[in-house]
Design goal:
alpha/beta, 9 helices, globular
């Protein structure tokens, strides 16, 4: 079974054919999709989407504030999210905190707020014993430094760092989220890292509708396209695509503590 640990299935890009996308996912062997939240708008879309979860395709929501969505007054939104994350909440059962982190590619004007929001959300995840999904675009070293004395369960979404950074993450018991970018021709460095580290701390993702793998690069991404990622990882690790997918699915089950 394949597990997509990071998919924005609620995005407008899927409004015309979301049901067909889900059917194609099942046909491709995808059994679970994790849904990271980014802001209030996406939070409001999650209940109707999660209601479409089935025995064939489990949909698992997460809740957090994306770094590019952090503005003055973010704490008001976070206070609402904390109530929804509570084990006693009557709404959705959220399985993690995310997508959270720091983004220095799209935004640097709100760095102080991003850091404050990120650390606040990690502390709350720890309090609730939930994993976090970390966005670290152009900020991986900063995040590793900020959290050097802050243990947490989590995954670094769309990992693109060095071997040394990967080793730090793995030593902390955390995971590397790998998607379509691993298939890009110019990304040999990432493939070299993954070949060295092996499958024990890797989970698969799409970030759909973004970052479609080769040969679909430039198209809308969707969970069914994880087959290309599984094949690439299998080639790196000397195993079949099915074996690679199964290993990553077991890792995801361990991280989120959800039985297979």
């Amino acid at each position: 079974m394949l597990t997509d640990t990071h998919c924005h299935l609620y995005a407008d890009a899927f409004d015309e054919d979301r049901s067909e996308v889900m059917r194609r996912a099942v046909a491709a062997g995808v059994g679970r999709i994790f849904l990271p939240n980014v802001d209030l708008e996406s939070w409001n879309k999650l209940p109707d989407l999660v209601a479409q979860s089935s025995t064939e395709l489990g949909l698992y929501p997460m809740l957090g504030i994306h770094p590019c969505s952090v503005e003055e007054g973010w704490l008001d939104l976070w206070d609402q999210m904390k109530l929804a994350l509570s084990p006693n909440a009557l709404s959705l059962k959220f399985v993690g905190v995310g997508e959270i982190g720091i983004d220095l590619y799209w935004r640097q004007d709100n760095l102080a707020l991003q850091q404050e929001a990120f650390l606040t959300q990690v502390h709350e995840a720890n309090r609730l014993d939930l994993p976090v999904c970390i966005h670290s675009r152009d900020s991986l070293e900063l995040i590793l430094e900020l959290t050097k004395d802050l243990p947490f369960r989590g995954v670094y979404h769309c990992y693109g760092g060095t071997l040394e950074q990967a080793e730090v993450i793995m030593e902390r018991g955390q995971y590397l989220g790998i998607g379509g970018t691993v298939t890009f021709k110019a990304n040999q460095g990432l493939r070299d890292v993954l070949k060295r580290v092996g499958p024990d701390h890797v989970v698969m993702e799409t970030d759909a509708p973004y970052l479609a793998p080769v040969p679909h690069r430039g198209q809308r991404n969707e969970p069914a396209m994880m087959a290309q990622v599984a094949q690439c990882l299998g080639d790196l690790w000397g195993m079949s695509a099915e074996e690679a997918g199964d290993r990553c699915t077991r890792n995801a089950a361990d991280l989120w503590r959800i039985p297979l």
